[in-house]
# Entry
Amino acid sequence: MSLLRASAILTRPLDRAGSENVPPQVSDVEEELVRLFDESRTPVFRYVLSFGLLVEDGEEITQEVFLALFQHLRLGKSRRNLRGWIFSVAHNLALKRRHANHRFRDGADFDRTVTESRVDPWPSPEEQVLYIQRQARLQAALQALPEQDRCCLRLRAEGLRYREISRVLGMSLGAVSLSLTRSLNRLRFADGSEP
Amino acid sequence: MKNENVHPSDQQLLLFADGEITAHRADQIRAHLAACWDCRSRMAETESTIAELMRMHRRSLDPQIPPIEGSRAHLRARLAELERSSHENRAWSFWSAAPVRRLGYVCALALLVVLGARMLQRRAAESPANVSVNWAMLPNPRLTPGATAATTVNSICSMSDDEVVAPVSGTLQQMVFKEYGIAGAPTASYEVDYLITPGLGGSGDIRNLWPEPRYDALWNSFVKDQLEEYLHHAVCGGKISLPVAQHEIASNWIAAYKKYFHTERPLSAVRAPRISMISEPLVHSTAPALPARPALALAVTWGRARQGTIGESSKISELSRPCMFSGLRGKVRHRPLFGEICTWNPSGSSRLTVDTPSLA
# Structure
């Protein structure tokens, strides 16, 4: 069972066979871009935010990503692995922004406040406590992972396939697979270490 | 079927779960899982961890993400701007043109230089001050592409007047001036205005601010205030969607004004008064007779505003900007239209009267 289904459009090898180098009409590109934006904006935004950036930074980076995509499409460049391309640009911009901001929340990924403030109403206080404890254990295990492993997990959580992740992070397919297995084993251990 | 009897590794199980394995190997693992409780249990634990991880990921980040509509409108505005600047650049791609076309460009350029020089001479003679401010009728899209805050129509329409006309801090104003290369410019000449007004979900980000001429330009901040008010009411009245309003005001507010007001020129024939006039009584043909005691008359516009009923203790300096009063009678909320004139009559029974000149 896969985590998320890959988008058929974003992974389509080439829309117009043989016309890769012919710049398409601007209006067509714009409409296509808006469609891609509607499909991918939220995952991209979420991925950027998971670097611990502010929402304003996330908004700006997301806009920059899609403006870059517009130029990419308008120049008739390759449409292979477009989703990998989008996340690759987002990844680089997010790292750059985080570096510029000097605003590390010491490796903040999935917001640590989740266990403090955002809990669903549970049938009983006991269940709520168990939920919070479980989240805290996962959170701690997650933050103990190397950054590359966390990036792998986050990209997979956004539905990217292994080859797309390998492109974004510049790793081999085998390394992506190993990283995910290693991370999930650690999380699983943390998750199940207490009853 | 030897492979079916060998327990798959954790990595193989994950590859299988993620559909990243060959069909043949997937069949083998499926058959093995059907027979092996131990591996099924490992698989279930992995799936459970993934599910929990996903839940944590979404819940922590999703609430922070603003609605997509505003972002989409912003993107469209930036695309339009990109396209416009790209057209301008193409117009100057002289060396990439064919020789015959190049000759045409040379002739056209020479003609433009001559005409431009004449125009500049004439304009300089007529109104030297205007030349310096006309550039700012529309913001520089690179510096001020517009920025929106995470918001909804309901929250916009339930905003207090304070929020709708949120003032820009002095420090931020100076930053904007500096950004536009006019550091130290008189604040009386420019209003550091929101491109997308807070009343339409615009944010206080510097990318949403630019120095807009107050009086000297035909399309000045007072004219834009009319459009802002119109769009705010149209959005709240459900006539226009919020993303459309944001897009139109961000991409070219003058074009939007022309579109919605069905005019090629600002509706108000009389430009907004200069600040120096504020402390003097304004005379309007239909205004009530001014009291014997010196009264303050204020040109009212929708925009940067002073709120609340003016009390006797109000100082001239507090009133020396376009204002919006909250009431005609007591605390009744009223948002005067552009061009309305509020007269403060401290000796009268009604402290504020509003006169509405025809805008047609």
Remarks:
- Chain A touches chain B through 52 residues (CB under 8 Å).
